[in-house]
Design brief:
heterodimer, A: alpha+beta, two-stranded antiparallel ribbon, 5 helices, globular, B: mainly beta, Rossmann fold, Neuraminidase, four-stranded antiparallel beta sheet
Chain lengths: ~160, ~450
């Protein structure tokens, strides 16, 4: 476990080392590559795997709708695949509420995919609230990347 | 967990003496100077008992000083040495070093494993005994004996129940900030007797004690299915609560321990449900398309405070325990969350978010008298000391500009806003929940 922590910190330090040349370093969110167990490469390439939300919002933006259209197309062409939609929040809320908000976001994505013809029983939702951020940072650039719903392909 | 302590103690009657201007501390109002207190080495029957007496005295000292209400005077200045519990204090010697209170103690081994601890509390200026007691305990229980004595002194001086003989259940955090490992952990109120209860394989959140302290209710992501669980402290057994179609979370026991109140999220809507633990019957208490969560019972079990975003942003509401008569109580600027009813019934503690900051605060149950007692980048999840005078919560420092995450630690603060202090934990810590007084359960 200690090893884990060290590796993670080293990764963070490494990435931020590169980011420090960026002009707005204070606003730069530090990205750390996230392992995605079983995530389907073709899916990630053909249709982006995530959509983003406004603060305390679960409404799909126009940008999100475009991503989800592509996801629905891919799913309608790959009917053997099922998905789990993970709802996430930034850390600017309390734990319980963020679990509920993450669920709202995941269900918003699920309902849209259903409206585009994906069968409901191929979609499972789970909320992680603020427990699994995509990036570390105390600024809007980081928070906006963490307010997301990620579609994970399962066989 | 093993049943560590076998109790065979007899708390002899305190000898109260009437006095006109009695030594006391008012902990409800403005901040007062800590009471200068003498705590000389305990007299003892033999070497082993002397070592035990020293250990017990150190815990009493640490408890009383952590309250911010007592200042234990430097033992180098003491003029009198006690040889037995029958020795009377030489009051002028204690007045000379400006001690207001004096704690005298004595320890004997009454068998290989049993100790007897006697204690006397003196009002130095009135030259009067305020309290005396004798405990007989298994020597493994010496820490609890010390906490019980500190509670007795605290109660005699402040007129309020103490809180030192209590435990904290919380979430121990390790690992990457992106995939935090979270474990249930339990410890004494002062951080001692620390124990991890789960192995970290499953994400766990928001533990709460049952009123009799036999169980902990919490949220576990076991099998990627977030549900409310019960953890049996005696056996370590974990058991999912009920068969719900959606995520269940934010559980709390009713004051009588027979019910849980919690949230369930399904199809994008979160409402509050009551679960009868005896019959497993489920009752839905709120019915709105908004998020209703973080429910907490009033100490009489008749009302529930919760937060809802039905007005457009999170605010606090109070309803009858059957879901009727919902009333909004928070109207200040910002969002209000995680309300917790004080065990005394007089306040509701909450987390507030406003202007990019988080606060811990208290208000009366009708929403008046809002007062903030802590602030930070992220402070969250207040929990009450059993006497309703202290709040514990967690504080997460922001990551720095290089993305190195800040520490997450548990803090305590008096509801006056004074005496904020950090609890020492082996790793990062969040979601604390304070137990009832062990000796009262």
């Amino acid at each position: 476990m200690k090893k884990h922590l060290f590796a993670a910190l080293a990764a963070v330090a490494l990435v931020s080392g590169c980011a420090s040349t960026a002009p707005q370093e204070d606003e730069a969110a530090v990205s750390v590559s996230v392992e995605q167990d079983g995530q389907d490469e073709a899916f990630v390439q053909n249709a982006q795997d995530r959509v983003f939300f406004g603060f305390d919002q679960s409404k799909l933006t126009a940008e999100a709708v475009n991503v989800l259209k592509a996801q629905a197309e891919w799913l309608n062409a790959n009917t053997g695949k099922n998905v789990v939609i993970e709802g996430h929040t930034d850390d600017r809320g309390t734990r319980d509420y963020n679990l509920a908000l993450g669920e709202r976001r995941a269900v918003a994505v699920k309902n849209y995919l259903i409206s585009r013809g994906v069968e409901a029983d191929r979609i499972r939702v789970i909320s992680y609230g603020k427990e699994r951020p995509a990036v570390v940072g105390a600024n809007e650039a980081a928070w906006s990347q963490n307010r997301r719903a990620v579609t994970i392909v399962k066989d | 967990m093993k049943k560590v302590i076998l109790w065979a103690f007899a708390l002899l009657l305190a000898s109260f003496q009437a006095a006109n201007a009695e030594l006391s501390i008012d902990i409800t109002g403005a901040r007062s100077e800590p009471m200068a207190t003498g705590l000389p080495a305990f007299s003892a029957g033999g070497k082993g008992a002397r070592d035990m007496g020293d250990k017990i005295a150190r815990v009493i000292e640490s408890d009383l000083e952590s309250s911010g209400l007592f200042r234990i005077l430097d033992s180098m200045a003491y003029l009198q040495t006690f040889k037995g519990i029958g020795d009377a204090p030489v009051f002028v010697d204690w007045q000379a070093i400006k001690a207001e209170a004096l704690i005298q103690g004595h320890v004997d081994y009454i068998s290989d494993r049993q100790i007897r601890v006697s204690i006397r509390l003196w009002d130095v200026y009135a030259a009067q005994e305020m309290y005396s007691a004798t405990l007989e305990i298994d020597n493994k229980g010496w820490r609890r004996a010390a906490h019980m004595i500190a509670d007795a002194v605290y109660k005699r001086i402040t007129g309020e129940e103490g809180y030192f003989d209590t435990r904290i259940v919380y979430i121990a955090e390790t690992g990457s900030p992106l995939k935090r490992i979270k474990r249930l952990a339990i410890m004494d109120q002062d951080g001692e007797n620390h124990q991890f209860l789960t192995d970290g394989l499953n994400l766990v959140l928001t533990p709460r004690f049952s009123p009799n302290m036999q169980q902990i209710t919490y949220l576990s992501f076991y099998k990627d299915t977030p549900r409310v669980y019960l953890f049996d402290i005696e056996t370590g057994k974990q058991q999912v609560v009920g068969d719900f179609p959606g995520m269940t979370f934010a559980p709390r026991f009713s004051p009588d321990g027979h019910k849980l109140v919690m949230s369930m999220a399904e199809n994008g809507n979160t409402d509050i449900y009551e679960l009868n633990l005896d019959t497993r019957a489920v009752r839905q208490l709120t019915r709105s398309p908004a998020i209703e969560t973080s429910p907490s019972y009033s100490p009489d079990g008749k009302k529930i405070v919760f937060n809802s975003d039905r007005s457009g942003a999170q605010q606090l509401y109070v309803m009858d325990a059957n879901g009727k008569n919902v009333k909004r109580i928070s109207f200040g600027k910002g969002r209000y969350a995680t309300p917790v009813w004080s065990p005394r019934g007089d306040y509701i503690a909450f987390t507030k978010m406003a202007g990019g900051k988080f606060y811990i605060g208290v208000m009366f149950p009708d929403g008046r008298g809002e007062r903030l007692v802590a602030e930070g980048y992220l402070v969250e999840a207040p929990t009450w000391s059993p006497n309703g005078r202290i709040l514990m919560y967690f504080r997460q420092e922001p990551p720095n500009r290089y993305g190195i995450p800040g520490a997450t630690k548990i803090y305590a603060v008096d509801i006056t806003g004074y005496n904020e202090r950090r609890l020492i934990t082996p790793v990062d810590a969040s979601d604390p929940a304070w137990s009832p007084l062990l000796s009262n359960r």
